[in-house]
Amino acid sequence: MQSEYAISIKGLTKSFGKLNVLKGINLQVKRGNIVALLGPNGAGKTTTIRILSTLLQPDGGRAIVNDYDVINQSAKVRANIGLTGQFAAVDEYLTGAENLHMMGRLYRLSRADSRKRTNDLLEQFDLVEAGKRPTRTYSGGMKRRLDLAMSLIASPPIIFLDEPTTGLDPRSRLTMWEIIKQLAASGTTILLTTQYMEEADHLADYIVVIDHGKVIAEGTSDVLKAKIGSDHLEIIITKPGGYEKAKEILKGKSVQTDDDRRTISVATKGGVKKLKEVLQQLEDAKVEVESVSLSRPTLDDVFLNLTGRKTGAEEPANKKEKK
Fold this sequence. Notes:
Elements: E1 5-16, E2 19-30, E3 34-38, H1 45-52, E4 60-65, E5 68-69, H2 74-78, E6 81-84, H3 96-106, H4 111-124, H5 140-151, E7 158-162, H6 170-185, E8 189-194, H7 197-203, E9 206-211, E10 214-219, H8 221-228, E11 231-237, H9 240-250, E12 255-258, E13 263-268, H10 271-284, E14 289-295, H11 299-307, H12 317-322
Parallel strand pairs: 3-8, 3-9, 6-7, 7-8
Antiparallel strand pairs: 1-2, 1-4, 4-5, 9-10, 11-13, 11-14, 12-13
């Protein structure tokens, strides 16, 4: 009987010489979910993916993929996963179709099954016409789509995506997002690493933030955002007299004012409900509002609050030397 979790990691550690990359990572991924692994450069995201895909052995801890141990049952793990790395791993001298067919044969599919699967994937990834051309003529987005298609040739139940949209233009990124969502909708379990906060926000059912080789926060996007603060309601009042009246109505610890701009900012956890309430109070008092906006914490805010730096930031050199 299959366990609830497609991926289960407990106490995973890995060092390269004196550099401790993973320091006891714990992680669980439910079947059919998309889980995003967030972290700055050097946090241990790619190392985790490489261990789970049996490309690297951990120093300690345990990792289970589809109920198979990555160390003791590595062959069975490889038979149950697909992997798309940070760079498109395609043969540029072969056509798209030839790349897929070659991968199918490497997975020991029969010639007929490999051809059928190749044709299905070319259609699914909108590469039917391009599939006849050498991949050196492909755009970056097309190569990434082909790379992902190659990882699906054997229809694995679990896929690892290591920064799958890095370097893509916005249109190609949106295309990849749609493909990833379709895969999850079909029941595929996906663990992806990314430095794009909007990508995690858009795709992930669950988010795990790692830094310095440790998990420092996890939860849904909404849960993580709620941990760092309130929504912000900003109101600009049209007339000076109305502004003074509005300050009196809305005064409190969670209110900040800017007299020069006649702006009132309210920190609240009430969201849209609080917005309606405030606007009704001002309307009843006949205060004329020039503009109003409601902003919520973003995953960028979450990450900056947790780590003190942005996701693309490198680990400071002096800290690396101390490890």
